[in-house]
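User: Predict the complex with heme C.
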Amino acid sequence: MTNTPMARPVLIPALALALLVGAALPSAPAAAQSAVAEGQALAFDRGKGNCLTCHEIKGGDLPGTIGPALKDIKRKYPNRDDLVAILHDEPKRNPQTVMPPFGRNLILTDKEINAIVDFLQTL
Ligand code: HEC
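Assistant: Here is the predicted structure with heme C placed in the model:
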């Protein structure tokens, strides 16, 4: 069936409404989504987090096995402060570890650590 003159007046307000709703909704979820994407990029970046050198992470290529595979992280560490602490200074928790103190050594900023923690909580 082709567009009859009678169908058009209904279609245009419906389209306008869909556009309005689409423009009004995204801000909060989009911000969370971009932090996760940024965190993943930082974690996989060999010059930044470089986490794949030691950890297997879903979606990452050529992982090492020096550290445990990072999975079920949200269940294992429900409190995100624990993850921030691990990333900030794991040698403080475990003096024997080979994991670098990313925050204390200024390898990653607090903002970068928070983005990576957002990403880790999706694993
Ligand atoms: C040089 C190797 C190395 C690098 C690089 C590294 N880690 Fe680790 N990581 C370890 C080891 C080894 C452990 C095991 C615990 C320990 O040694 O204290 C660990 C433990 C962890 C844990 C706790 C896991 C669990 O199941 O309890 C998390 C979370 C973690 N690392 C995240 C990261 C993230 C995110 C990065 C990148 C920003 C990273 N690690 C980079 C070696 C590394």
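Residues 43, 49-51, 53-55, 66-68, 70, 73, 76, 83, 86-87, 90, 94, 97-100, 102, 116, 120 surround heme C (CB under 6 Å).
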